[in-house]
Every structure is written in structure tokens, then in C-alpha cells.
Design a protein that fits this description.
With 166 residues, the protein is mainly alpha-helical. The protein has a single domain, classed as AhpD-like, CATH 1.20.1290. Helices cover 70% and strands 0% of the residues. It is built from nine helices and no strands. Helix 2 runs antiparallel to helix 7 (105-139), helix 3 (32-46) packs parallel to helix 6 (83-96) and helix 3 (32-46) packs across helix 7. The longest helix is centred in the C-terminal third of the chain and has 35 residues, at 105-139. It starts with 6 loop residues before the first helix and ends with a helix. The model has no long low-confidence stretch (mean pLDDT 90).
């Protein structure tokens, strides 16, 4: 599929602001492995192959297991995830699919119990963040997984060259 638009060149200030939000989320204190589970799950729901590829690789690099990554789309049916992860995944689904149920009270109460006010605000911004990237990648038919990883590594000040090469 041909890339529709080089969005970074068309609106660099917007992409830099988005990358700055990513830095803030990564420095927020939320567990990195949890973030990549959330990013992968939202990307699965949105059908964003670009982001699924990136975040499953990132999760593996942090020690996430193949079993948990493979079962992520059926997380409710397994015992592989902690109660905190389950609450985050349910909230990810509620926020990503906001048109279905408008973030149900039960999902909110559970995630709030696990994360508290500040943690829930951080998690919700992280979910919103990946949903923005999914929409950009899908809408503009972003391609070139390795180049995207390099851009994000630069933006997030990750210096591991082998990891950033994709």
C-alpha cells in the first residue's frame, strides 16, 4: 500500500508535539511493559499493523513473553494478566471503542481502583496517544516499519542502536 502523505513534513510542529507527549507518557512512571500491552491492544482493535509490529517488538525487548502477546486479543479468557493489567486492558478497550458504551462505569471503577486519580489520568492519555498514532498510520497508510522506529527512538532519546534499527 502506498503511503498517502508524509505527515511529518506536512505538519512537523504537530508531530513534534505528539512526540513530546510520548516522552511525557514514557517518563510518567507507568510500567513500560504495561504501556506496550496497552499500545498493542489498542492497535489490534484499530487494525494498525504498523503499531502492532512496533509495540510487540518493544514489549519483547522488555522481556514480555510470547504467550502473553499471542493471547492479548483474548486476555479476558486467560489467567496470564494481573488484575492491574486486566483493568488497564478493559479501560483501553473502553476508550479505544468509545462509541460502544461510552466508557462504562464498571470499567472506570475497576481501573480507578487499580490506578488512582493520577495513574488513571496518565493511562488515559497513553491510550489516547496510541489511538492518535493508529489513526495517523492507518489514515496516511504509513509504511516502512524500520524508519518509523528510528524516528521514534530519536524523539524519545533511546540510544540502543540495534533496538532502534527495528
Amino acid at each position: 500500500m502506498a503511503e498517502r502523505l508524509r505527515y511529518g513534513k506536512a505538519f512537523p510542529e504537530g508531530i513534534h508535539a505528539l512526540l513530546d507527549l510520548g516522552k511525557t507518557i514514557n517518563a510518567s512512571g507507568l510500567d513500560e511493559k504495561l504501556l506496550h500491552l496497552v499500545f498493542t491492544r489498542a492497535s489490534q482493535l484499530n487494525g494498525c499493523a504498523y503499531c502492532i509490529d512496533m509495540h510487540t517488538k518493544d514489549a519483547r525487548a522488555l522481556g514480555e513473553t510470547e504467550q502473553r502477546l499471542y493471547a492479548l486479543d483474548a486476555w479476558r479468557e486467560t489467567s496470564f494478566y494481573t488484575s492491574r493489567e486486566r483493568a488497564a486492558l478493559a479501560w483501553t478497550e473502553a476508550i479505544t471503542n468509545i462509541q460502544v458504551g461510552h466508557a462504562p462505569e464498571a470499567a472506570y471503577q475497576e481501573v480507578h481502583r487499580e490506578f488512582g486519580d493520577a495513574g488513571l489520568a496518565k493511562l488515559t492519555l497513553a491510550i489516547s496517544y496510541i489511538n492518535v498514532w493508529n489513526r495517523i498510520a492507518i489514515g496516511f497508510r504509513a509504511n516502512g516499519f524500520p524508519s518509523a522506529r528510528k524516528v521514534c527512538c530519536r524523539a524519545l532519546a533511546i540510544s540502543d542502536e540495534a533496538f532502534c534499527a527495528g
